[in-house]
Specification:
mainly alpha
């Protein structure tokens, strides 16, 4: 009886061992099948990410054409005008009538574009701290950074330093801005005089809108002509 008991125990242990080994083999097989399935799913995704990264790299500033850059800048200025008009609503100033914006060479266009964008940076930097509304300040700061990107690109395009003022940019006074843009204003069309004191957010945003109107029309006239 004892021998038979020992035989049963040994056979049971053997059977359990075989079952454990079979289960382990099945687990390993399932793991490999799951791994293969996962690889089949993730490999196309990884390939897509690589393709997207390569596409983004091909659109880097190093490879961006001057034409693409100016079309992008033009769209940004369109968006700035639309935003300021929507923000001001019925208080938005009418669009002035401009003059002397049509350029006769691509070089003169680029140089005047550079001047306008750098004036825009200094103007927003001067105006932003005077805004009382946090929402208006956030919006103005956002547009400031875009104007600065434009200016940096154009500075580099003509062989100047990306930031001529070094690590810290400088605001431009209201009187200097007015002096810079007056040669291009033919008629204010009933809008506020940009030389008057800016007393509140509406005045400040309308001053910004004047500059955005100017840049917007400048690009609308010249970008299709040269690019």
């Amino acid at each position: 009886m004892d021998d038979l008991h020992n035989i049963i125990i040994r056979r049971t242990q053997h059977d359990n061992g075989e079952e454990d080994r079979a289960q382990a083999k099945l687990s390993r097989r399932s793991f490999f099948l799951r791994s293969a399935a996962t690889a089949a799913i993730t490999t196309p995704i990884a390939g897509l990410l690589v393709a997207q990264t390569a596409h983004a790299a091909s659109r880097s500033a190093h490879n961006l054409s001057v034409s693409d850059a100016f079309h992008e800048i033009r769209k940004d200025e369109d968006a700035h005008v639309a935003f300021l008009k929507a923000t001001l609503g019925r208080a938005a100033r009418p669009k002035p009538r401009f003059k002397n914006l049509q350029q006769h060479s691509s070089a003169s266009f680029v140089n005047l574009s550079l001047a306008f964008e750098n004036v825009g940076v200094g103007a927003y930097l001067q105006a932003a701290p005077a805004l009382s509304s946090k929402a208006h300040l956030t919006a103005a700061s956002s547009m400031l950074t875009i104007e600065a990107r434009h200016a940096g690109y154009l500075n580099a395009l003509v062989g100047k330093l990306i930031s001529p003022n070094g690590a810290f940019d400088r605001p431009i006074s209201q009187s200097q801005i007015v002096k810079d843009v007056l040669p291009f204003i033919d008629n204010l069309n009933g809008g506020p005089d940009p030389a008057k004191a800016l007393k509140n957010d509406t005045d400040i945003l309308n001053f910004a809108l004047l500059l955005e109107y100017l840049e917007d029309e400048f690009y609308d006239i010249n970008v299709p002509k040269f690019y």
